[in-house]
TrEMBL record:
InterPro entries given in the database record: CMP_dCMP_dom, Cytidine_deaminase-like, DHFR-like_dom_sf, Eubact_RibD, NADAR, RibD_C, RibDG_C, Riboflavin_Biosynth_HTPR
Biological process terms in GO annotation: carbohydrate derivative metabolic process; riboflavin biosynthetic process
Keyword check for NADP: yes
NCBIfam families per record: eubact_ribD, ribD_Cterm, ribofla_fusion
Keywords in alphabetical order: Glycosidase, Hydrolase, Multifunctional enzyme, NADP, Oxidoreductase
Protein name: 5-amino-6-(5-phosphoribosylamino)uracil reductase
Enzyme Commission numbers on file: 1.1.1.193
Pathway note: Cofactor biosynthesis; riboflavin biosynthesis; 5-amino-6-(D-ribitylamino)uracil from GTP: step 3/4
Pfam families linked: NADAR, RibD_C
Reaction catalysed by this enzyme: 5-amino-6-(5-phospho-D-ribosylamino)uracil + H2O = 5,6-diaminouracil + D-ribose 5-phosphate; 2,5-diamino-6-hydroxy-4-(5-phosphoribosylamino)-pyrimidine + H2O = 2,5,6-triamino-4-hydroxypyrimidine + D-ribose 5-phosphate
Amino acid sequence: MPLIGGAAVTFAAPALTLRRRRPIRCAVTDAATAEEAALLRRAAEVADLSAGHTSPHPNFGCVIARCGDVVGEGFLYAQGTKCAELQAVEKAGGLARGATAYLNMEPGDCYSDHTAVSSLVQAGISRVVIGLRHPLQHLRGKAIQSLRSESVQVDVLGEDLQSKTFEDALKSCLMVNAPLLYRAAFRVPFSVLKYAMTLDGKIATMSGHASWISSKVSRGRVFELRGRSDAIVVGGNTVRRDDPQLTARHGGGHVPVRIVMSRTLNLPDEAKLWNVTEAYTIVTTQRGARRDLQKKLAKKGVEVVEFDILNSRDVMEYCYDRGYLSVLWECGGALSAPAISSGVIHKVYAFVAPKIIGGVNAPSPVGDLGMVQMTQALNLIDVSYEQVGPDMLISGFLQPIPDLSPVIPSSDEISILDPTVSPFDTKIISFYKTWDPYGAFSNYSPHPIQMPDENGNNLTWSTMEHYYQAHKFVGVDNPLAKDAFEQIKMAKSPEEASRLGRKLQRQHPEVVRADWDSAKIDIMYGALKCKFSTYPHLEAMLCSTAGSVLVEASPHDLFWGGGREGEGLNYLGRLLMQLRTEILEESSKTSVVS
C-alpha cells in the first residue's frame, strides 16, 4: 500500500500545568463497553453533519459523556472554523470536568495553536477515546502525545481498546473519513462512480434518451452526493447528449467543480456547463486539441487543462494536487470502464429502476473491461441495499477502506528510526490546504484578525479570506456592494466567504471597487501583518522558514498561487517572505540594542 510522503512535524505541547484529574469511574461491564462503542459511533455521526455545507474536508466529531450521558457535542463545520472539541466543551460547561471525550479521529492541529487539545485539557477532560489516529503523517500521533503529556488518559481503538464490541464503531469512524484515508493511501482523491440503470442494465435507450431512468427521490439523493464532493466528472458524450448542469441544487452550501474529460475537444460551443456563474468548470483535454474552442471557453471563464495523454489517473492526480478529497463520476460507459481499470474508482452507487427498455445497442453503465470469464468479475465489498422511492440503491466498495494505523509510523517511531530526518524541505516550502504542515499560512486558517474600517473603527474578521473578499466592495456606493460586504463578513466559513466574493465579482463586476487590481496586494499584506503580529506562535513558525522559498501551491490561482507547473506569480508566497524579512530584521535590531 503506498504511503504518503514527508516526515512528521513536531510542535511544542501547550504550556499547561493542570494537575492530573481523577476520572469519573463507571462500572466496566459488557454493557459499558457497548455503551462506549455507541458513543464512538455517535461521534462519527456528528462528524458527518457538515457534509454538503462546505468543501469536503476531514470530518471531526466530539461527544463528551459522563457514565454514558452525553453532556456536549460538536463537529467541524469547515476548515477555518471552530474545532469540534472546543464546541463540545463549551456546550458541556462545568460537566466536562472529569468526563470522557469520544473522538471519531485524532485532532489535526495543523495551525500550531493546539486548540483542540488545549480545550479538552483546560475543560478538565480526564479521558479521551479516539477511533482513528490521524492518517496524515505530519499530524499523526501529535494530539495523542500532547494529551498524554498533560496526564489525560488516551485510548485508541485497535491499540488500547481491542474488544470485538468496537468493530462497528471502528467501521463508522473509517467510513466518515473514507475520502481522507483513500487520499492518504493512494495519493488520489476518493472517487465514487454513480449511475442509474434499468432492470435490464441500460442507462439510456438506443437513441440516447435517458430522462428519466430513476425517480425524483433518487435524483434528490444524487444532489446530496454532489454536495459531498469536491468535483463531478463527466465525459464529452455526456455533454453532447445530455447538456447537463451538474449542480447540487440544495439551496445553498457547497457547489462542486464540474470537470469534463474530452480527448478531441469535440464539444459544443454553447452548453450549460460553460456558464460558470453558479459553479466552476474545468475542461481537461490532450495537448493541442482545438485551440479555437479553448480560446472560446477561456473567454467564458472555463478553465482548460491540457495533458500530454488524457487518462483517468493523470486527471485524478491533478485533482489530488488541487487538494480535492472526494470526486463523483457521473459519466457513461466509455469513460467509466478505463477509470475502473486504472484503479481510481473506489466506490459504486448504482440506482436500479424497476423499468425495462431493451435494445441490443442501448448503452450500459460500464464499457468493455476486457473480461471473458465470470471469474474475472469485480466483486463489491461491504455491499449495502436501500430502497429509494421505487428504485433500489446498491452501493459498495471496489477497494477496501485503507486502515493506515499498522503501516504509518508515529512521529516518535520516526525519530527513533532516524533522528536525522528533517520534517520539512529546507529549500522550498509549499502550503495550500489548511491541513498541510504549514496550513497556518493559508488565508483559510482559523485566526481572527482585527482591522480598522473606513471610519477607523476596529472590526473583527473570522479569517483573512473573509477580510480580503469583503474588501473588493469597500467604498462602492451601491446597495449590492454594501450587502455583499455584510454577507461575506458573516459567512460561516472562509470557503463560503470566498465563494460569495468571487461569485459577485463575476456576476456584477461593476460593483467591485475601481482600484481593486492595484489595491489588493496592499490589502492582503496589511491583513498578513495583522495576523502574524497577533499570534506569536505563527510569527515564530514563519521565522522558522528562514532560508526557504515559500510557495502558495494553488494550481489554479495564477496570481496568489504558484500554479500547476510553477507558472503562477505566487504573490501570497512573496508577501509572506517579505513579511518574514521585516520581522527578522526588526528582531535583529532589537537584539543589537539590548
